[in-house]
């Protein structure tokens, strides 16, 4: 008995992690998957109902708006975060004075919650007392900035706040990447007469392929999950113009009590994340094994 | 003669490149400072707004300086006005968050350290699959587990309680903590462990005598990561708790959204600062470890 215990001690110690993740991650996802094939309303029902919830989901105007918003948000969020992140990383890499201070400033939003961020930006973008008033008081009397309450433009306020929060993170990833390149490579290129621009554009940035890939995966992942920021900034409004899948899911589940439909929307999100993550994990593991 | 010409034109060229260089430097700093002001702007606005009276807010602009250091809205945000019902303020929810964060960080870090230790130093057949199995947990969108989690918490009798939130945060922290410790212990030479095993040291002795003494940096990284994640969480907090058991982010959101009386933006901003200050302090004091967690975990959700 004691021998057995000693021999299996490592596995026993690891059991809580495997058990908890097995149950609370894999078991729960499977449960949600099953429920998405049933006609559950307030309480889960366990008779299978086929793809009805998915048909309902893709016929729902609110869901289609959510997906549309997610695509617009993801595209802009990705582009701005990566472009700003790269510019800041390259500029900071030029032996800048006070680099530490600047880096701290660029990255501190990552330490804040999306609720805090959303609260701050909601106030800044406030159409009567925020930025609009600032410009009017400065003498631009016809200046209007009402994106927060404008159906067409509200989604872009979420982009502004989201980029503000995450661009510094991309900067940190690229700066770490640039710093890990050996000096010799840059020196050799400079001796060959390459200017600074050429060095970055032709040599260093192409070497940053893995960093691009990592940033892409993480940013897409953040954007698919975005929930808090929308709740704090617009609550999906005006109307339903800034609703997104994560918000759709919780509202359908907990306010409208359509458990089956919300399970179907959760599974759509799950599949979207899996489509991005599985190739990423695969390539990461291959890189690690190659080492 | 030829030589002289050459060297003077070279000097000219050097002079010219010095000017372009100087211009480039100025441009560089200009852009960096421009972005720095974009990043600092909301924080500045939050702080000055929280120090103004509502009258000042209506008179001035976002950027205008407050007339004095007026901490009244901070006091209201933290302790309320004392008129009883309907008076929401952050103090009790701040403590809720502390009571939730401390045990959740402790348990998830402990489990992650143990699991990472086994996965690297007591390897067995299929261990890399086990790691992958755990790692995937970092990425799942939590919407896919919200419904069964709500039912489970109900069945366990801990829905709408801090104990329930501790459980949720511990479980969904494990993939991250395991990732951190596993990646750290991988670089510790296995020979050390093997030698200790030959000397007859057991499983726990090896952990406490060899691994734990060199684990300080990764423990700091993990604790900071978990603290930030759990303190800043809103999804779990808002789904699994309401009323008195809510953590601070939920309370902040409720306070800002409540439309019972005249909107007091100064109190809103003071509340937001109070909710953000603990993680900001950790970031300023231990930024290096914070960034290490971000880039090695690299999976913020």
Structural account:
The complex is a heterodimer of chains A (291) and B (301). Chain A has 291 residues and is mainly alpha-helical. Chain A has helices at residues 2-35, 52-59, 61-92, 99-107, 114-124, 131-137, 154-179, 183-191, 196-207, 209-225, 228-233, 245-255, 259-290. The longest helix of chain A is centred in the N-terminal third of the chain and has 34 residues, at 2-35. The model of chain A has no long low-confidence stretch (mean pLDDT 88). Chain B is 74% helix and 0% strand. Chain B folds into two domains: 2-79, no CATH class; 91-295, Orthogonal Bundle (MetI-like fold), CATH 1.10.3720. Chain B has 301 residues and is mainly alpha-helical. At the A-B interface, helix 1, helix 3, helix 4, helix 5 and helix 6 of A face helix 1, helix 4, helix 5, helix 6 and helix 7 of B.
Can you tag this structure with a few keywords?
heterodimer, A: 291 residues, mainly alpha, 13 helices, flat, B: 301 residues, MetI-like fold, 14 helices, 74% helix
Structure summarized in a few sentences:
The complex is a heterodimer of chains A (291) and B (301). Chain A contains 13 helices and no strands. Chain A has helices at 2-35, 52-59, 61-92, 99-107, 114-124, 131-137, 154-179, 183-191, 196-207, 209-225, 228-233, 245-255, 259-290.
In N-to-C order, the SSE pattern of chain B is HHHHHHHHHHHHHH
Q: Would you report the number of β strands of chain B?
A: 0
Taking pLDDT < 50 over at least 5 consecutive residues as the criterion, the unreliable ranges of chain B are none
CA radius of gyration of chain B: 27 Å
Give a quick account of the main beta sheet of chain A: strands, pairing sense, barrel closure. none
CATH class of the largest domain in chain B: Mainly Alpha
Number of helices of chain A: 13
């Amino acid at each position: 008995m004691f021998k057995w215990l000693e021999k299996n001690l490592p596995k026993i110690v690891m059991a809580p992690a495997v058990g908890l993740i097995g149950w609370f991650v894999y078991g729960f996802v499977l449960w949600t998957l099953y429920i998405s094939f049933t006609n559950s309303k307030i309480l889960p029902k366990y008779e299978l109902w086929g793809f009805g919830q998915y048909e309902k989901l893709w016929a729902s105007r609110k869901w289609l708006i959510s997906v549309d918003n997610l695509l617009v948000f993801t595209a802009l969020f990705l582009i701005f975060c990566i472009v700003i992140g790269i510019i800041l990383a390259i500029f900071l890499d030029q032996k800048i004075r006070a680099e530490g201070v600047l880096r701290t400033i660029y990255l501190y939003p990552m330490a804040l919650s999306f609720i805090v961020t959303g609260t701050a930006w909601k106030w800044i973008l406030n159409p009567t007392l925020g930025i609009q008033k600032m410009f009017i008081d400065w003498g631009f009397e016809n200046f209007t900035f009402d994106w927060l309450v404008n159906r067409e433009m509200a989604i872009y306020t979420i982009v502004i706040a989201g980029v503000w929060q995450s661009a510094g993170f991309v900067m940190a990833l690229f700066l770490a990447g640039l710093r890990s390149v050996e000096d010799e490579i840059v020196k050799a290129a400079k001796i060959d007469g390459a200017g600074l621009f050429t060095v970055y554009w032709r040599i260093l940035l192409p070497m940053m392929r893995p960093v691009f890939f990592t940033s892409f995966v993480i940013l897409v992942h953040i954007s698919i999950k975005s929930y808090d920021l929308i709740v704090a900034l617009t609550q999906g409004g005006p109307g339903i113009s800034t609703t997104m899948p994560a918000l759709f899911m919780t509202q359908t589940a907990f306010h409208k009590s359509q458990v089956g439909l919300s399970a179907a929307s959760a599974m759509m999100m799950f599949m979207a994340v899996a489509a991005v993550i599985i190739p990423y994990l695969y390539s990461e593991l291959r890189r690690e094994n190659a080492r | 003669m030829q030589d002289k010409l050459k060297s003077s034109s070279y000097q000219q060229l050097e002079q010219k490149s010095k000017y372009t260089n100087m211009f480039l430097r100025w441009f560089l700093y200009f852009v960096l400072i421009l972005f720095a002001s974009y990043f600092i702007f909301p924080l500045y606005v939050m702080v000055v707004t929280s120090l103004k009276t509502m009258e000042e807010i209506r008179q001035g602009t976002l950027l205008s300086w407050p007339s004095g250091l007026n901490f009244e809205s901070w006091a209201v945000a933290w302790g309320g006005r004392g008129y009883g019902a309907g008076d929401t303020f952050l103090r009790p929810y701040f403590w809720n968050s502390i009571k939730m964060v401390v045990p959740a960080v402790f348990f998830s870090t402990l489990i992650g350290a143990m699991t990472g230790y086994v996965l690297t130093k007591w390897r067995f057949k299929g261990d890399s699959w086990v790691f992958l199995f755990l790692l995937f947990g970092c990425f799942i969108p939590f919407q896919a587990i919200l419904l069964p989690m709500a039912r489970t918490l109900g069945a366990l009798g801990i829905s709408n309680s801090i104990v329930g939130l501790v459980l949720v945060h511990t479980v969904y922290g494990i993939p991250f903590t395991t990732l951190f410790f596993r990646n750290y212990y991988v670089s510790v030479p296995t020979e050390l462990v093997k030698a200790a095993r030959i000397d007859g040291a057991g499983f726990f002795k090896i952990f406490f005598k060899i691994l734990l003494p060199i684990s300080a940096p990764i423990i700091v990284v993990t604790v900071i990561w978990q603290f930030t994640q759990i303190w800043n969480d809103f999804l779990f907090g808002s789904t699994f708790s309401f009323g008195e058991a809510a953590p601070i982010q939920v309370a902040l959101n409720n306070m800002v959204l409540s439309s019972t009386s005249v909107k007091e933006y100064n109190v809103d901003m003071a509340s937001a600062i109070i909710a953000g200050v603990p993680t900001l302090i950790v970031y300023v004091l231990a930024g290096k470890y914070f960034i290490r967690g971000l880039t090695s975990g690299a999976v913020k959700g």
